[in-house]
Amino acid sequence: MSDVFLPQPHDATAINALRFLAIDMVQAANSGHPGAPMGQAAMAYTLWSRHLDVCPSQPSWHARDRFVLSSGHASALIYGLLHLSGYDLPLAELKKFRQLGSKTPGHPEYGHTAGVDTTTGPLGQGLSNGVGMAIAQRVLAEQFDREGFELFDHRVWVIASDGDLMEGVASEASSLAGHLGLGRLNVLYDANQITIDGSTDLSFTEDVLARYAAYGWHTVDVTDGNDLEALDAAMREATADPRPSMIKVRTHIGFGSPNKQDSSASHGAPLGEDEVALTRENLGWPHASFEVPAEALDAFAPVATRGDAAFAEWAALRERYAEAHPEAAADLSRREQQQLPEGFAEALPRFSESDGPMATRKASGIALNAAAAVLPELLGGSADLAGSNNTDLANEPFFSASVTGRNFNFGVREHAMGAVLNGMALSGLMRPYGGTFLIFADYFRPTIRLAGLMNLSPIYVLTHDSIYVGEDGPTHQPVSHLAALRAIPNMVTLRPADANETSAAWKVALERTTGPTAIVLTRQGLPVLEAATVERFERGGYVLSEAQGEADSILIASGSEVSLTLNAQAALRNKGHNPRVVSMPSWELFDAQDAAYREEVLPRNLRKRLAVEAGHPLGWERYTGLDGGVVGQRTFGASGPGGDLGKHFGYTVENIVEQFERLG
Amino acid sequence: MSDVFLPQPHDATAINALRFLAIDMVQAANSGHPGAPMGQAAMAYTLWSRHLDVCPSQPSWHARDRFVLSSGHASALIYGLLHLSGYDLPLAELKKFRQLGSKTPGHPEYGHTAGVDTTTGPLGQGLSNGVGMAIAQRVLAEQFDREGFELFDHRVWVIASDGDLMEGVASEASSLAGHLGLGRLNVLYDANQITIDGSTDLSFTEDVLARYAAYGWHTVDVTDGNDLEALDAAMREATADPRPSMIKVRTHIGFGSPNKQDSSASHGAPLGEDEVALTRENLGWPHASFEVPAEALDAFAPVATRGDAAFAEWAALRERYAEAHPEAAADLSRREQQQLPEGFAEALPRFSESDGPMATRKASGIALNAAAAVLPELLGGSADLAGSNNTDLANEPFFSASVTGRNFNFGVREHAMGAVLNGMALSGLMRPYGGTFLIFADYFRPTIRLAGLMNLSPIYVLTHDSIYVGEDGPTHQPVSHLAALRAIPNMVTLRPADANETSAAWKVALERTTGPTAIVLTRQGLPVLEAATVERFERGGYVLSEAQGEADSILIASGSEVSLTLNAQAALRNKGHNPRVVSMPSWELFDAQDAAYREEVLPRNLRKRLAVEAGHPLGWERYTGLDGGVVGQRTFGASGPGGDLGKHFGYTVENIVEQFERLG
User: Fold this and answer.
1) Could you tell me which chain A residue has the CA closest to the CA of B633?
2) Which of A67, A428, A603, B551 is most buried per CB count within 10 Å?
3) What pLDDT sits at residue A194?
4) Does A471 contact B32 at a Cβ distance shorter than 8 Å?
């Protein structure tokens, strides 16, 4: 970062280059959002050319500043920034904006385009990811920095739109950021007064800066979004302030377009050839479509110059660090390679029958603590249900404004928790987890989906997983939630049947690096199943209790219904039937097995099949077919003691026997 | 409401009666939340005895004030209030707190217990429902009030907890309420500084009143939550102020418990017999468990006295209104009976082939406007996507701080939109709808579930329903969403195949009164199917195109894949196969048909079945079985023109033929 603001001769050219690249990309695709990039160009240029410490040749450098374009519809802006700053994003890719197979999709996608630090588009998420990124910076500094070795000293910069600030997830995350005093987080708020439906006067007239001041943020008002000196001063002020900063930047959507500036007409559609020509004239831009003048590249050159120097300095520091602090350096290397420590699996607990009955949430807390003892990258907490979710790490401090620890009080903010977990995971060096009741998975579902899309691997600890919640009643009893989670791509949902399957679930979750994992757990105690081994669990479904001789039918169950189904098997035997019992903790893991194994567990010719799960039957027919049945429920729960509810909803040996005998 | 505050001799007895009823209920159930009722008792008593205009003998009176216990875990408080005020909730029900079949479930449930105005428990929802209730009051006054006939002059009172105010949905709804100037909304914020995990200092240190001032609310600070005079003055002030009011009331959780006051120990567990005895002693309460002294009933008597008088006055006014304004009175009666006007169905459009291709979102806009022309109770809007969702009502004003209309700009606030729709629906006199992209159904999913639980019937207009969204890319392309919606009890999900099925979908949605309906619509144009009649659509699945002679197989599709599947049928015929094509717009409607009809459409012995839907296949196996197949996708989408994506993901005649021929 330069120490004083000096206007550069090519500033205007660089800013207009960003604007016209965006205009041209959208025009070429005949689809996209030109207005926001045109309005945000000056703040983005000021940030990138003077403040942002990134290294275009090392886009995944773990200690880089993060840039989050929370207003992801302005994707043409970030592609312009990446191209002009020297990232591996040639003009040819910009010309394929929004085309299948290009590096320039409609909204920025992490893992798809080098230099994109998070996937944005669904509003409110990027800013909230930024909160997680700022937390990650503090944790990494705490875990790795040593005297003379400031390895993790980076900042998080966000550009957010009116829409981001209307979303509840951003409100939750911002309140949390203020509470935690995350001074490394700076937000540039693109206040252009326009949303898709028209002026913000239609729906959004609150005093945003006063709200952020109430959250405990530092606030700045930049009244002219094209005033580079004022923008630079605000960024300096934000960097200096120990609180998170909200910089309101008054901009003009579609800046420079004679007929569409300050209008929602420039938000989500190409300007059109005629208007593009008028805009070229108006802004004095003599260049052809996608033509980038050398002056624009010159103006962006400091990004790479500064970045290469910073990265080289960091790499050298890292080498000296390896000598001075070999253990910490080895841990960092291991985490960079997404490796688990040797012997990690052995640290996880095995349970025996005499440990039961034990709620799987309790077993989860034991397994989590065992894992955390050998995995410093494992960190997380609960959305104000830590005692119920068993998510606290023993003997670890809680992360607060003054203390950096691995335990988190997320508050009653499930959606922010999900987004923060994504931000932490995006550090590439952390394994975050978050707990709440399964019923509240709906509250942060958008973030689960984004974790799947980004191939991030946060772990969700979702307890109180059925009507067995009991007295709290139907408001707190999940019915649709398992089915809904199982429909999310790249996600693995695990519903362990006992303490041993729970321990195995943690192993599976921690070994995953390509998407999120939900561990779905009981409130109530369950018998411990000694036959539930890790190896069997990892296949997603397995024969837990074989028939006597050749099976004539199959009972399939998950979670708390597995031990119930074992009892039903015994009752059915007494009535002359001979079913096997399959424990099926994970559809995704089972479906990933080879055909031979799946045939072994669920032989194709064995059509008499009954699945048992305390939830909506939707999807179980994949395993039970047209001739089978499902013991589940299509209705909401009720308030009463769990045992009473189990009987009421038919989760009994008697009902399983009856439903079984109704099958053909 | 009395004009001046006069302390009553039995105030303290009444407040302690509320406290001890809550303590005793939780103790009897050995489960529940005593602390919040103990802290909230004084404000609740002040509100009910002096301000709230309700009529215990007419709990569903449409012009009553609404009372929302947003902190639903404090349910024992509302049961106490209802009992003491003379609602039909005898002590015997209080003694069955949290038992199966009782009127006193763990969290208050609308429709289950007379006097409960909305279902609460999931935090943030009640307050946000209150915003919808306050909107409903203004709309009802606008639609029905005439000079000399103020029929709808009620207010909405909410008790909210720290947890409610941490939830993003409440932030969104509160910002909207400030914007819309909803002066009839008054919130009592139970600031007890304690959440489940401990002190709010752990996670929630923002300045709540400053935040609400930033939203444009009137704010009041009551520093002693047991000071009835101060509480009364604050409620008066709130009533007088034209803005929504946030009254911060500093309380003590577990007030009166010597060892558990101000501690999270009193939040979610019984106090225990010993501590109950100590609390009795401490608060000077000589009465036995569940014993209610006459003085307490006396103190609450004004609720019924005032309510009976107010209701009688209103009923008389209503009679005179029927004479003076017979048409409006008839409309009100019709709406009270949840009847649609005669000839309503005829108002909906029919389309012919020559109208196509037409996007179903466009047909939806036409059908919606046709319906709105004959249904004054139909009102709604979009979460800042009105132009894309086709949700605007032509020639209707937009609801704002100064204008009361049937069009709403909800802003980029999907979650609040869902909760506000629930609040509007709770008026019993409105049919609200809300639009956004299907992808953002995840953002307001908790409110869909609550609509289902409450048997409310808002309508969700969910456009851009698959990878055919195109260039916006995977961030905006739903894959899991249909499956996830179909798993919600009491919900009907409709995915119409063309303009005619879309018109029929509106008929089905508007005729439903027992749960929410989602109408899932395309961005892209589709051929119009003249064979798609209302009668066929209403059965959920029907043979759209019969096989030639006896069918040898079945193709099943929904939405945009129906016309594709018709093309595949032709191609398969050319290859010697003879499938029928079933259009299946709604699983729920189809499953509700009798067995004979279902057998007619999907004959049990016809096992060669292929379903086609641009989404996750989860659940389709219910209809395709172990021998069938599904053309769908288990992966996220991609950015590119919709046509390219259709090919890429296999939604082509060629792929359908190939997948069909792979079946046994």
Assistant:
1) A489
2) A67
3) 87
4) yes
A105 vs B contacts (CB less than 8 Å) = 473-474, 638-639
Alpha-carbon A378 to chain mean position:
15
CB-CB contact of B28 with B57 (8 Å)? no
What is the three-class DSSP state of A175? helix
Tell me which chain A residues have a C-beta less than 8 angstroms from the C-beta of B164: 412
- In the 3-class helix/strand/coil scheme, how is B220-275 assigned residue by residue? EEECCCCCHHHHHHHHHHHHHCCCCEEEEEECCCCCCCCCCCCCHHHCCCCCCHHH
As a whole number, mean pLDDT of residues B352-366 equals 97
Just list the catalytic residues of A. Answer: 414
Mutation choice for A interface testing from B128, B175, B200 by most A CBs within 10 A: B175
- Is A283 found in the same domain as A143? yes
Judged against a pLDDT cut of 70, whether residue B34 lies above it is answered with yes
Nearest to B472 by CA among A79, A107, A72: A107
Residues in contact with B274: Cβ distance below 8 Å, sequence separation at least 6, in sequence order: none
- Asked if residues B219 and B213 have their Cβ atoms less than 8 Å apart, the reply is yes
User: In terms of domains, do B223 and B281 share one?
Assistant: yes
Q: Are the Cβ atoms of A384 and B442 closer than 8 angstroms?
A: no
Asked if B162's CB is within 8 angstroms of A475's CB, the reply is no
Domain count, chain B: 3
The per-residue pLDDT for range A454-481, each reduced to its tens digit, is 999 999 999 999 999 999 999 999 999 9
Segments in A241-342 forming alpha helices (H): 273-283, 294-324, 326-336
Contacts of B217 in chain A (CB under 8 A): none
Chain B residues near residue A445 by CB distance under 8 angstroms: 442, 445, 484
d(CA A172, nearest CA chain B) in Å: 5
State whether ipTM is beyond 0.95: yes
pLDDT for residue B318 is more than 90: yes
What count of CB pairs under 8 Å joins A to B?
Answer: 348
Q: In chain B, which residue's Cα lies nearest the Cα of A625?
A: B625
Write out pLDDT tens, residues B427-477. 999 999 999 999 999 999 999 999 999 999 999 999 999 999 999 999 999
Residues of A in contact with B641 (CB under 8 A): 31, 99-100
First to last CA, chain B: 75
Are B564 and B507 in the same domain? Answer: no
- Of A479, A503, A526, the last residue of a domain is A526
Q: Is B272 left (phi over 0), alpha (psi -120 to 50) or beta?
A: left
What's the pLDDT at B605? 95
Q: Which of A411, A402, A632 is nearest to B165 (CA)?
A: A411
- Written as one string, the DSSP assignment of B30-95 is T-S--HHHHHHHHHHHHHHHHT----TT-TT-TTSPEEEESSGGGHHHHHHHHHHHT-S--HHHHH
Interface test with B, best of A472, A589, A649 (most B CBs within 10 A): A472
The CATH number of residue A599's host domain is 3.40.50.920
Least CB–CB distance from A100: residue in B440, B449, B644:
B644
Nearest CA in chain A to B172: A168
As a whole number, mean pLDDT of residues B538-556 equals 97
- CA dist B658 and B662 (Å) reads 6
Contact A197 B384 (CB under 8 A): yes
The predicted structure's pLDDT at residue A4: 59
A-chain residue closest to B124, CA distance? A412
Same domain, A396 and A492: yes
B172 in active site: no
Domain shared by A442 and A483, yes or no: yes
Q: What are the chain A neighbours of B175 within 8 Å (beta carbons)?
A: 166, 204, 206
- How far, rounded to the nearest angstrom, does the alpha carbon of residue A455 sit from its chain's CA centroid? 9
> Other CB atoms closer than 10 Å to residue B80's CB: what's the count?
29
Average pLDDT in the B152-169 region?
98
